[in-house]
């Protein structure tokens, strides 16, 4: 008994298909034509050296003729003529004035100097210098002074406890008295006078605290 044939092995009916190969035409003709034109252009140029190029540039360079404006020379001529006329007129005026001025100058008398010499005003006598004003007051006493006012100061300071203890009343403003005055100023806060100087502020405060009639 024979076996049935396999369907896959059955022969195909119809024409057998072969692989198709696609060929693209290359435009060699156009490329060859382009190369031919390039070669012709290259052959048409002439190679020259830098010296020949410079000579040709000088030959081709032409100097342009100067620009001429119609009427320019006429305007310059008129301007020069006007300037010359003005200068001539000024010269004539100056010459005429020079002829007239000398006669007028001779007629004018020169100013005669004054016969009397000038007398200077008498100088005022120098003002007497004003006496220096003591900043601590007119009746200020300081170290080196002497007199009855110094005696009064010593007597008043003896009445202030521990300011001028066992101090002398000889009327001399010495260093001991100056120290007593400075001590009084410090203890009672007197700031208007110099330290150790018996000025108006120190005198006013001391006289308000003491009296000479007591002793």
TrEMBL record:
InterPro entries from the UniProt entry: Peptidoglycan-bd-like, PGBD-like_sf, PGBDSf
Region entry Disordered, spans: 40-73, 105-146, 195-215
Residues spanning the membrane: 81-101
Annotated SUPFAM superfamilies: PGBD-like
UniProt feature, compositional bias: Low complexity: 105-132
Alphabetically ordered keywords of this record: Membrane, Transmembrane, Transmembrane helix
Limits of the Peptidoglycan binding-like domain: 146-204
Keyword Electron transport recorded: no
Keyword Membrane: yes
Signal sequence region: none
Protein name as annotated: Peptidoglycan-binding protein
Protein source organism: Streptomyces shenzhenensis
Source lineage: Bacteria, Bacillati, Actinomycetota, Actinomycetes, Kitasatosporales
